[in-house]
Design goal:
With 370 residues, this protein is an alpha/beta fold. The chain has two domains: 9-134 and 358-362, 2-Layer Sandwich (Nucleotidyltransferase, domain 5), CATH 3.30.420; 137-350, Nucleotidyltransferase, domain 5, CATH 3.30.420.150. 38% of the residues lie in helices and 19% in strands. The strands form two sheets. A six-stranded mixed beta sheet has the order 8-7-6-9-11-10, sandwiched between helices. The protein has a five-stranded mixed beta sheet with strand order 3-2-1-4-5. Residues 8-13 have low confidence and may be disordered.
């Protein structure tokens, strides 16, 4: 399946259409649920200044895309796991009396032939209405979630969201934006990659691409290769091949003024391994900056461990070990094309983007510094 990208300006995503209340209540709770190819995640949060405070959260591996590459359908087992997880989410939404919410599904539901039947079952058994969002919106929301991590020194920004079923890359030119306003310019992209006229200097989206390869789907592509190192090399090469239509791929970038922000379980796991964390600590990982050399050192360590060593490494975790090498293959391909001393690790993503978009549209966030 070829990467998905727009053919023209008309293909850019429209803003999230969340009807704002007449009098926005900053004390009201918001929810964002992301049902992905591998995991079901939800955040319930309250606006706080220019950001938000998380009140409750949920995360569970449901492997919704297991076997999808072969059959083209979501299996009964993965559907049952997902419905069970969504029942728990519904309970949390009811407990906190959440009225403002956005509940979305991504690549697995976009590709599966039985996605409509699955969504109907979810509605029938949990009462939750899930929206399947397009790759454009998924990429945009990932970018918005990373706004607080954008350096004021960054002129060229690459945001990478490595998911279970797809990987979104967005290249943004910030050179025309005053340094102090660069994080805020990223936040303004909640209105779309091609926002309406504004009195503020705008972040320019040079190009974006959605590659239909994530940690689960890339792993499935090469499951018949028995040699661990050979499988890793093939996955990394294959992913890089899928970047050929991404316009910045052909241009070498200077390290000065260039920043990559990576948002995914892969990136946070590599960061945790780099720090030697035996128990994951979001406060130490989110916002951490790593060099290409440090990332390469961690990945080389994973390869030396082999499958058994990775399975027993507490820094990786038993829910991540089976997917870490396909994610690392994607990350290594990116570092090979765009080496950097400023890869920022983001323990945030689609859920945070959904929350920011809803709260910004409702006018309940303060227009202050991050």
């Amino acid at each position: 399946m070829a990467p998905k990208r727009p053919k023209g300006a008309g293909a850019f995503p429209k803003p999230v259409e969340t009807p704002a209340p007449k009098s926005p209540d900053p004390a009201e709770l918001y929810a964002a649920l992301d049902l992905g190819t591998n995991s079901c995640r939800m955040l319930i949060a309250q606006p706080k200044g220019s950001q938000f405070h998380v009140v409750d959260s949920f995360s569970r591996s449901v492997q919704l895309g297991a076997g999808l590459e072969t059959s083209g359908r979501m299996s009964r087992t993965s559907i049952s796991r997902s419905v069970q997880a969504l029942r728990i989410c519904r309970g949390k939404l009811e407990k906190h009396r959440v009225k403002r919410m956005r509940l979305v599904a991504t690549e697995a539901c976009r590709r599966a032939r039985n996605s409509a039947d699955f969504l109907n079952r979810v509605k029938r058994e949990t009462g939750l209405q899930l929206d399947i969002i397009e790759p454009e919106e998924e990429a945009r929301l990932a970018v918005v979630s990373c706004a607080p991590l954008v350096s004021t020194r960054t002129e060229q920004l690459l945001v990478v969201d490595i998911g279970g079923g797809s990987t979104e890359l967005v290249w943004i030119d910030l050179s025309a934006v005053p340094r102090s306003d660069r994080p805020r310019a990223i936040m303004r992209l909640h209105a779309g990659f091609h926002p309406p006229e504004s009195p503020f200097p705008a972040a320019k989206v040079v190009d974006w691409i959605s590659v239909p390869l994530g940690v689960a789907t890339l792993k499935d592509q090469f499951r018949d290769v028995e040699d661990d190192a050979a499988r890793f090399a093939l996955m990394s090469w294959f992913f890089e091949e899928n970047l050929a239509d991404f316009s910045p791929y052909a241009h070498e970038q200077a390290r000065e003024g260039f920043q990559i922000i990576g948002t995914s379980g892969t990136v946070t796991t590599v960061a945790a391994s780099h720090l030697g964390l035996k128990r994951y600590d979001r406060n130490k990982v989110d916002g951490l900056r790593m060099t290409s050399d440090q990332i390469d050192q961690v990945i080389r360590g994973y390869l030396m461990m082999g499958p058994e060593g990775r399975r027993n490494d507490p820094r990786i975790g038993r829910d991540r070990h089976a997917l870490i090498m396909s994610g690392a293959a994607i990350l290594q391909a990116l570092m090979r094309v765009w080496p950097t001393d400023r890869l920022s690790v983001a323990d945030r993503g689609l859920r945070e983007g959904l929350l920011y978009a809803q709260m910004t549209a409702d006018g309940v966030l303060e227009d202050g510094p991050f």
